Amino acid sequence: MTKRRVKLDQLNYRPSGRELDVEIFHFSDLRRRVTSEQILALYHYSFHTLICVTEGAVTQLVDFQPVNCAPGSLLVVRPGQVHSFGNDEGWDGWMVLFRAEFLPSETQTTADLLPVLGLDRLPDHLSLSTADFHAMSEVIARMQLDAASEARSKDIHALLRYQLCALLLRLAIVQDRNLGTDIATSQSLQRYARFRGLVEPTYYGWHQVSAYASALSCTEKSLTRAAVEATGKGAKRVITDRIALEAKRLLVHTRRPIYLIAEGLGFAEATNFAKFFSRETGFTPIEFRKQYNH
């Protein structure tokens, strides 16, 4: 089944009735206000979205990969990712939408009151314990009530900002606890985190592990070892997967000619890109694009 491509802002969802930099609502509220076709569309986000499933089960799609969700499942969908809700019936959950710039930066005064929160610390998917699930749900429910308060918008913005920071810090703490303190702070995983941070702005031009190892002042072997420890995949595979993922996103959510996609991803020839894409996905770029276009 193909899915229609849609930008999330087409839903124009403003449940609080005011202009806020964060939105909190139930999935069921969204379902009542839009069509089933809009719900089942394939979305390309320009902001962060937290989805905490509260009842029922559903298989959602994040960057073309299925994620099985049950009560207590929490998804973190990041800007640039591709997402589908999977089903518009039989489940419900909280949704929290926000832009990264809504959080205080390290240079702002408010940051002195908070541990440095890197959004990269957040997990992609967590299965929360009963206690953590109730704690998260209570914070989100409180945020929704406060967003509808008749207080001054400036005050509501400040309140929601701190509440969001608290929510994300709680989530990061749960993630670190699941990883284990030794693992979360290990030198190898810290190296991998720096590697991932470097991959994002450079993958379209740096295709070789050697370039990243040089930039990180480590050997290719140690970088690969760090990647395997963190993900079970070597550093080369991490780079390759990121290039292939961006190719999928561009093929589905832009009408850009394939030769321009190839050029933008650092391939000298479109034929080289086509061979790479076919090897990694089992589809030609044209075949993959057709799956998501009517």
Write a compact overview of the structure shown.
Helices cover 48% and strands 17% of the residues.
Task: Provide the fold topology.
Layout: E1 5-7, E2 22-26, H1 27-33, H2 36-39, E3 42-44, E4 48-56, E5 58-62, E6 65-69, E7 73-77, E8 82-84, E9 91-98, E10 125-127, H3 130-147, H4 153-179, H5 181-184, H6 187-202, H7 209-215, H8 220-231, H9 235-253, H10 258-264, H11 270-281, H12 285-291
Parallel strand pairs: 1-3
Antiparallel strand pairs: 2-9, 3-8, 4-7, 4-9, 5-6, 5-8, 7-10
Helix pairs in contact: 3-4, 6-8, 7-8, 9-11, 9-12, 10-11
Report what the structure shows.
With 294 residues, this protein is an alpha+beta fold. It folds into two domains: 5-182, Jelly Rolls (Sandwich); 187-291, Arc Repressor Mutant, subunit A (Orthogonal Bundle). It has twelve helices and ten strands. It has a five-stranded mixed β-sheet with strand order 1-3-8-5-6, with helices on one face. Strand 5 and strand 6 (65-69) form a beta hairpin. Helix 7 crosses helix 8 (220-231) and helix 10 (258-264) crosses helix 11 (270-281). It is globular, with a radius of gyration of 20 Å. The N and C termini lie close together (11 Å). The relative contact order is 0.11.
How confident overall, as mean pLDDT?
85
Order of helices and strands: EEHHEEEEEEEEHHHHHHHHHH
Please identify which CATH superfamily of the largest domain we are dealing with.
Regulatory protein AraC
Extended strand count: 10
Q: How many domains?
A: 2
The largest β sheet comes out as:
5 strands, mixed
DSSP helix fraction: 40-55%
Coarse structural class: alpha+beta
What's the tally of helices? 12
CATH architecture of the largest domain: Sandwich
- Which consecutive residue ranges, at least 5 long each, have pLDDT under 50? 1-13
Placed side by side, the strands forming the largest sheet appear as 1-3-8-5-6
CATH hierarchy, class of the largest domain: Mainly Beta
- Enter the CATH topology name of the largest domain: Jelly Rolls
Shape: globular
Radius of gyration equals 20 Å
Please indicate the percent range of residues in DSSP E strands (runs of 2 or more): 15-25%
**N→C terminal distance:** 11 Å
